[in-house]
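Section 5: illustrative case.
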């Protein structure tokens, strides 16, 4: 059974690039166009990892992470931030909110897959 990874990013092209890399590695991929959309799609189904952007309309990535960690079904779901932001204060805020990792765009698909393999339990 394929592991499920939820991509949350307001850029359709980025969701497509990440999705292609993850599907090519055998993962099942769900997509949300921003934090609010993604929260609405989290219905209690098992998600093994969430990959979220930081800067999005309607609900930014940090607000999304905090909201996800309040949901009992997803409290322990690992979340990786995939963003252009490199600010240390934002990284610290992400860690405090419960992030597992922080990746900076642009990225190579093999970099993403290496992080996913470390974070997602076999």
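Designed sequence:
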């Amino acid at each position: 059974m394929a592991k499920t990874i939820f991509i949350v990013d307001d850029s359709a092209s980025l969701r497509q690039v990440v999705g292609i890399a993850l599907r090519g590695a055998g993962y099942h991929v769900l997509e949300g166009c921003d934090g609010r959309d993604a929260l609405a799609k989290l219905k209690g189904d098992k998600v093994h990892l969430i990959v979220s952007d930081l800067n999005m309309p309607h609900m930014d990535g940090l607000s999304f992470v905090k909201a996800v960690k309040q949901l009992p079904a997803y409290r322990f779901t690992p979340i990786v931030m995939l963003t252009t932001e490199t600010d240390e204060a934002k990284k610290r805020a992400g860690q405090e909110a419960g992030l597992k990792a922080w990746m900076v765009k642009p990225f190579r698909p093999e970099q993403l897959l290496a992080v996913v393999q470390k974070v997602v339990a076999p």
